Input
Amino acid sequence: DGIICNVGPSQSIYVVRRDGKIFEVIQTPTLSIINNFLDKSEIDLLRDFMRIKHRLNNNSFLQEDFNQDTWFYGDPVIESLMINKQKVLEKYSNCELLPTFSEWKFNTHGAEVESFSKREACEFTCYCVIDFKTKVDWTFYIQKQKINLKIGDALFYEGAKNHYYRKPLDGEYFADATLHYVKKGGKYQDWIKDKRLTYGVYK
Output
């Protein structure tokens, strides 16, 4: 059950009641901001998991990134999150989804994201904020919009179509996870599991 309030020709605010909680969703045809996408127990678990794995990491980095920050593809914990959030995200995609792959990153001071669009396996993308310690908001620029998310919030959008970027990170760190899906029965459905044999393994 929910309440829908139209605020413009291309944007609506959805106040969705689920498990006794209220969620505010700002939605355009290809972009949804989902507040409180992750609950406190999920945030606490993922925060500690990422901090520990970042400290122990010595071989998994995003090579094209100037900082070469900690980056993991197909991590079993984040893959599990991707699978378990599928049904929730189908409310915003208006279609059945198939999980493809996940990735997470522990960004450090000076990290910068250049504008780019994702590949076929990223037809639908859910970007989740896990934890951060910054001096100012690390703004997400997409569809000519400036978006700032809180811990536990998510940004759901058509990953294969949208370009985005972020300016250098002014802060200590910013941990995030990204979940990717394709439309079931769509032209990219062959990318289920990112064409791997199973979830939770590197391609």
